[in-house]
Specification:
Order of helices and strands: EHEHEHEHHEHHHEHHEHEH
CATH class: Alpha Beta
Bound molecules: phosphoenolpyruvate
CATH topology: TIM Barrel
Length: about 240
């Protein structure tokens, strides 16, 4: 169960969040929780999660290890904060900062080389869905961003299916739509990496998840977890989703 805070919360707001969130999820030992705050709040989040099983992730990672890449943050810098995950290829990065399928692969490899677990985001735009291109888009995103990984690298990634039309819009994809997309992703994984690797792959769903729909979504066998944006900003609401 992963939370993406997007560009929200200062470090002091992050500390307050963890003080409230920790006891709420203290009895959920059987599930993994990841919270991805902005870079500037990573330290506070790592401190806030100390002594719990809550993992902390970044929202992106630089392709390069170091050097003249103003505004970027490298995998080793992230790892040094205590973060253990990072999002890669989030649709808001694709939309606002021109990130492409081609960038997803080197960012994923950079994350893995720094011992971070990448949560790779894929998903079709509203136009892709309207024109019947969803399968083609997911297949292309897999082929360019994930397919070239080695089997060992692939075994360490998490994929999040996030249809762009469902992110921050209040329009959750139906269980049927999500199941179909997850099957396409798992099929691509099977054909490139084999049955065992495809079965072990964790595929999260993201897009307007809230405490009211989380239980229905988690009841779908194809959905291994959720990537939650806006509803993860409130400790009560994210805890309710984690428990669902
Ligand atoms: C996200 O930011 O990854 C996301 C799924 O956002 P929301 O839950 O707000 O749609």
């Amino acid at each position: 169960m992963a939370g993406n805070w997007k560009m929200n919360k200062t470090s002091s707001e992050t500390s307050e969040y963890f003080a409230e969130f920790r006891p709420l999820v203290a009895d959920t030992e059987d599930r993994e929780i990841v919270i991805c705050p902005p870079f500037t709040a990573l330290d506070a989040a790592v401190k806030g999660a100390l002594g719990t099983r809550i993992a902390i992730g970044a929202q992106n990672v630089a392709r390069a290890k170091a050097g003249a890449y103003t505004s970027e943050v490298s995998g080793s810098m992230l790892r040094a904060t205590g973060a253990t995950y990072t999002l890669v290829g989030h649709s808001e990065c694709r939309k606002h900062f021109g990130e492409t399928d081609e960038v997803v692969l080197p960012r994923t490899i950079a994350a893995l080389e720094s011992d971070l677990t990448p949560i790779i985001c894929v998903g079709e735009s509203p136009e892709d869905r309207a024109s019947g291109q969803t399968e083609m888009v997911l297949t292309r995103q897999f082929a360019k961003g994930i397919g070239p990984l080695t089997p060992a690298q692939f075994g360490r990634v998490v994929i999040a299916y996030e249809p762009v039309w469902a992110i921050g819009t209040g329009k959750t994809a139906t269980p049927e739509v999500i199941t179909e997309a997850h099957r396409i992703i798992r099929r691509e994984a099977r054909s490139r990496f084999g049955d065992e690797a495809a079965e072990a792959l964790r595929i999260l769903y993201g897009g307007s998840v809230n405490p009211g729909n989380a239980k229905t979504l988690m009841a779908q066998p194809e959905i291994d977890g959720l990537l939650v944006g806006n509803a993860s900003l409130d400790p009560q609401s994210f805890a309710a989703i984690v428990k669902a």
